[in-house]
Amino acid sequence: TRATIDRLLQFDLGSLYRSISDYVSPIFFGKAMEDLKEDKLKETLDLFDSMVAKERFLCGDDLSLADISIITGLSLLEATDYPLSLWRNACKWMDGVKDRLKDFYKEMNAKAIENTRQYVKFLRDVKTDIKTDK
């Protein structure tokens, strides 16, 4: 229903994506990671994992805009090699969304994930090089 999708989009913007963004932002700006931000991310992922435990998609058997919105944020974590496998239900849900979207997902997200992954690796390598030069 529209109300459920709206609630899920609010959850995404206000909690899930926000905690993802707060966690990964330091990576892109060369700052130290904050344990408090990772703790909040884990709490939010725990909640999301429980939300997708019983249904194929967020609104049952039908893919919704909420699924597409949320997988985009989780893909950012994927690109940073965050251990999403710790949240089995979320991973199963992600696989289902990716499968349902097939070529569209590849075009929409897969290329961006790989580019982001390469950029994060570059930033980590540069940071390591700077530390070893001192």
TrEMBL record:
InterPro entries: Glutathione-S-Trfase_C-like (IPR010987), Glutathione-S-Trfase_C_sf (IPR036282), GST_C (IPR004046)
Domain GST C-terminal: 1-122
BP-aspect Gene Ontology terms: glutathione metabolic process
GO molecular function (one): glutathione transferase activity
Gene3D superfamilies cross-referenced by the UniProt entry: 1.20.1050.10
Pfam families: GST_C
Protein name (database record): GST C-terminal domain-containing protein
